[in-house]
Write a structure and sequence with these properties.
- The protein is built from five helices and no strands.
- The protein has one domain: de novo design (two linked rop proteins) (Up-down Bundle).
- Helix content is 70%, strand content 0%.
- Helix 2 packs antiparallel against helix 5 and helix 3 packs antiparallel against helix 4.
- The protein has 115 residues and is mainly α.
Protein backbone atom coordinates (compact mmCIF):
# COMPACT_ATOMS: atom_id res chain seq x y z
CA UNK A 1 0.00 0.00 0.00
CA UNK A 2 2.73 2.46 0.87
CA UNK A 3 4.35 2.00 -2.56
CA UNK A 4 1.04 2.79 -4.27
CA UNK A 5 0.68 5.98 -2.21
CA UNK A 6 4.21 7.06 -3.13
CA UNK A 7 3.54 6.42 -6.81
CA UNK A 8 0.27 8.37 -6.74
CA UNK A 9 1.99 11.27 -4.91
CA UNK A 10 4.77 11.31 -7.51
CA UNK A 11 2.17 11.53 -10.29
CA UNK A 12 0.51 14.49 -8.57
CA UNK A 13 3.82 16.31 -8.20
CA UNK A 14 4.92 15.66 -11.78
CA UNK A 15 5.16 18.74 -13.97
CA UNK A 16 3.11 18.93 -17.17
CA UNK A 17 4.94 17.82 -20.29
CA UNK A 18 6.42 20.51 -22.50
CA UNK A 19 4.93 20.69 -25.98
CA UNK A 20 7.45 21.10 -28.77
CA UNK A 21 6.05 22.49 -32.01
CA UNK A 22 8.18 21.47 -34.99
CA UNK A 23 9.05 24.25 -37.42
CA UNK A 24 8.46 23.48 -41.06
CA UNK A 25 11.68 23.52 -43.01
CA UNK A 26 11.75 25.91 -45.97
CA UNK A 27 12.15 23.03 -48.42
CA UNK A 28 8.89 21.45 -47.26
CA UNK A 29 7.09 24.76 -47.79
CA UNK A 30 8.43 25.02 -51.35
CA UNK A 31 7.24 21.49 -52.01
CA UNK A 32 3.88 22.33 -50.50
CA UNK A 33 3.50 25.36 -52.80
CA UNK A 34 4.42 23.29 -55.84
CA UNK A 35 1.90 20.63 -54.81
CA UNK A 36 -0.80 23.29 -54.56
CA UNK A 37 0.12 24.60 -58.01
CA UNK A 38 -0.03 21.07 -59.45
CA UNK A 39 -3.48 20.60 -57.89
CA UNK A 40 -4.65 23.91 -59.38
CA UNK A 41 -3.29 22.85 -62.79
CA UNK A 42 -5.27 19.61 -62.62
CA UNK A 43 -8.48 21.49 -61.82
CA UNK A 44 -7.81 24.05 -64.56
CA UNK A 45 -7.33 21.23 -67.08
CA UNK A 46 -10.79 19.93 -66.13
CA UNK A 47 -12.22 23.35 -67.00
CA UNK A 48 -10.26 23.54 -70.26
CA UNK A 49 -11.48 20.10 -71.37
CA UNK A 50 -15.14 20.69 -70.42
CA UNK A 51 -17.08 21.57 -73.58
CA UNK A 52 -20.07 22.84 -71.58
CA UNK A 53 -18.02 25.82 -70.41
CA UNK A 54 -17.95 28.88 -72.71
CA UNK A 55 -14.85 29.39 -74.83
CA UNK A 56 -13.77 32.68 -73.22
CA UNK A 57 -13.64 31.01 -69.81
CA UNK A 58 -11.64 28.09 -71.18
CA UNK A 59 -9.23 30.62 -72.75
CA UNK A 60 -8.82 32.32 -69.37
CA UNK A 61 -8.13 28.92 -67.78
CA UNK A 62 -5.49 28.29 -70.46
CA UNK A 63 -3.91 31.68 -69.69
CA UNK A 64 -3.90 30.79 -65.98
CA UNK A 65 -2.16 27.48 -66.78
CA UNK A 66 0.51 29.39 -68.70
CA UNK A 67 0.93 31.81 -65.78
CA UNK A 68 1.30 28.94 -63.31
CA UNK A 69 3.78 27.14 -65.56
CA UNK A 70 6.24 30.07 -65.76
CA UNK A 71 9.16 28.71 -63.70
CA UNK A 72 11.10 31.99 -63.92
CA UNK A 73 8.80 33.51 -61.27
CA UNK A 74 8.35 32.54 -57.62
CA UNK A 75 5.35 30.34 -56.74
CA UNK A 76 3.54 33.22 -55.01
CA UNK A 77 3.89 35.52 -58.04
CA UNK A 78 2.74 32.77 -60.41
CA UNK A 79 -0.27 32.11 -58.17
CA UNK A 80 -1.11 35.82 -57.93
CA UNK A 81 -0.96 36.19 -61.72
CA UNK A 82 -3.30 33.22 -62.17
CA UNK A 83 -5.70 34.53 -59.51
CA UNK A 84 -5.88 37.86 -61.34
CA UNK A 85 -6.81 36.13 -64.59
CA UNK A 86 -9.36 33.83 -62.97
CA UNK A 87 -10.94 36.50 -60.78
CA UNK A 88 -11.64 38.66 -63.80
CA UNK A 89 -13.46 35.89 -65.66
CA UNK A 90 -15.29 34.55 -62.59
CA UNK A 91 -17.83 37.39 -62.86
CA UNK A 92 -19.01 36.26 -66.31
CA UNK A 93 -22.81 35.77 -66.25
CA UNK A 94 -22.60 33.03 -68.90
CA UNK A 95 -20.53 30.76 -66.70
CA UNK A 96 -22.23 27.55 -65.54
CA UNK A 97 -22.61 27.19 -61.79
CA UNK A 98 -20.33 24.15 -61.57
CA UNK A 99 -17.56 25.99 -63.39
CA UNK A 100 -17.88 29.07 -61.15
CA UNK A 101 -17.64 26.87 -58.06
CA UNK A 102 -14.57 25.13 -59.45
CA UNK A 103 -12.96 28.48 -60.28
CA UNK A 104 -13.60 29.76 -56.76
CA UNK A 105 -12.02 26.58 -55.37
CA UNK A 106 -8.96 27.09 -57.57
CA UNK A 107 -8.70 30.75 -56.54
CA UNK A 108 -8.97 29.79 -52.86
CA UNK A 109 -6.24 27.20 -53.29
CA UNK A 110 -3.93 29.62 -55.09
CA UNK A 111 -4.47 32.37 -52.51
CA UNK A 112 -2.91 30.14 -49.84
CA UNK A 113 0.45 30.12 -51.65
CA UNK A 114 3.04 32.37 -50.04
CA UNK A 115 6.81 32.73 -50.51
Amino acid sequence: MSEEKKASEEKKEAKPATVVVPIKPKMAMVYDNEAKIRQALILLMRIINDSSIPRNIRRAATAAVKALSDKSLSPAVRAANAVGILDEVSQDPNMPVHARTMLWNIISLLETIKD
